[in-house]
Specification:
By secondary structure, this protein is mostly helical. The protein has a single domain, classed as ABC transporter involved in vitamin B12 uptake, BtuC, CATH 1.10.3470. The chain contains 17 helices and four strands. The strands form two sheets. A two-stranded antiparallel sheet has the order 1-4. Strand 2 and strand 3 form a beta hairpin. Helix 1 packs antiparallel against helix 17, helix 8 packs antiparallel against helix 11 and helix 14 packs across helix 17. It is globular, with a radius of gyration of 22 Å.
Length: 355
């Protein structure tokens, strides 16, 4: 099938983002930029897995960070108890996925028959209970302080991936081939694989059924599809992907706590990223995650520079003060929703060359 110009433009933009993330350690060599790139990789997967629910199936859930937290805490607890190594990472990932699937099946079978608003409230209640438990069970989860641990030895900054004849670590374009670089490419590779899995599901007949359920649930049921079974299956798939993303993020961050894994602010960020990028297209998850995270990290700096540059102009320096970055972020979000009602990717992909 021939792609329209808008679809080609979106996929080209996503390919460019992928290349920038692939070479991020060499293009942006400061610690903050590498942290931003790693966070973008994780949130692309997290937002794409949530879009599988809300965009492709029409399921509104507020429990996505709960599954993300299960994966993060699974790895964190075992890395803390067993010490650094790949065994606790793998076991923690499997434990996080198992717990996520149990919760997803229970919530799905009990709640997906009800109306959307009631299901959303049930997921919100479940996420709230898990957040409270993570804060209260300090013997296991570390409570509000969270858990600090060591990642596998391969990811230690002192680890030398490649050395020269004198024993010094090899540098490529001024970047040392050490454990920090290995940790970033672990995050990048894991995110790429998980995103590819989601693309494969969306492009399969399973994805077509999900779209049919979203468009007209009663008609999908009438032609023979077991809607509850499909909705439960996609809920479980989304939960498993989010849990694995949580495990990867825990290995990268070497810290897991309620604010980094279970906070409702993360859920709000995911919702905003889906809306900005566009629901019902995984390419939109890439664009939404990139724009939102860049704004969170760099909008304050840009406003500070603009405020200093306009120091002699009345009023403007005060309006552009760095402390008002959330206000301007809200304005930008409103403008994006107004001019791109289907999200950036959705609106651009809907554009076709006139005959």
């Amino acid at each position: 099938m021939m792609q329209n110009p808008g679809e080609r433009l979106v996929k080209s933009a996503v390919a460019l983002i992928g290349l920038l993330l692939l070479f991020a350690p060499f293009l942006f060599q400061d610690v903050r930029s590498l942290e931003v790139a790693a966070r973008i990789c994780i949130f692309i997967v997290l937002v794409a897995s949530f879009d599988l629910l809300i965009g492709y199936t029409g399921i509104v859930s507020f429990a996505h960070t709960m599954f993300f937290g299960f994966g993060a805490y699974g790895a964190a607890i075992l890395l803390k108890g067993m010490g650094p190594g790949w065994t606790p990472v793998v076991l923690g990932a499997l434990a996080g996925v198992a717990v996520s699937l149990v919760f997803a099946v229970a919530i799905g079978l009990l709640s997906l028959r009800v109306k959307a608003i009631f299901f959303a409230m049930i997921t919100l209640a479940a996420a709230s209970v898990v957040l409270v438990l993570a804060s209260q069970l300090s013997q296991i989860t570390g409570g509000e302080d969270g858990i600090t641990y060591r990642a596998p030895d391969l990811f230690k900054p002192a680890t030398k991936l490649l050395t020269d004849a004198s024993g010094k670590v090899v540098e490529v374009f001024g970047v040392k081939l050490n454990g920090k670089l290995a940790a970033y490419y672990f995050v990048f590779t894991a995110a790429l694989v998980l995103f590819a899995v989601l693309l494969r599901f969306v492009g399969s007949p399973f994805g077509t059924v999900l779209k049919a359920i979203r468009e007209n649930e009663a008609r999908a049921e009438a032609i023979g599809y077991r809607v509850v079974a499909y909705r439960t299956a996609v809920f479980c798939l989304s939960a498993a992907i989010a849990s694995l993303a949580g495990t990867v993020y825990a290995v990268w961050l070497k810290y897991t706590g309620p604010e980094t894994a279970l906070s409702f602010s993360i859920m709000i960020d995911i919702l905003l990223m889906v809306v900005i990028g566009g629901m019902g297209t995984l390419w939109g998850a890439v664009i939404g995650a990139v724009l939102m995270i860049l704004a969170q990290y760099y909008l304050r700096d840009l406003m500070g520079a603009a405020s200093e540059a306009l120091a002699g102009v009345p009023v403007l320096p005060h309006l552009l003060a760095p402390d008002r970055w959330l206000f301007w972020l809200g304005i930008l979000f409103i403008l994006l929703v107004y001019f791109f009602p289907k999200g950036i990717a959705g609106s651009v992909m809907a554009w076709k060359r006139p005959r």
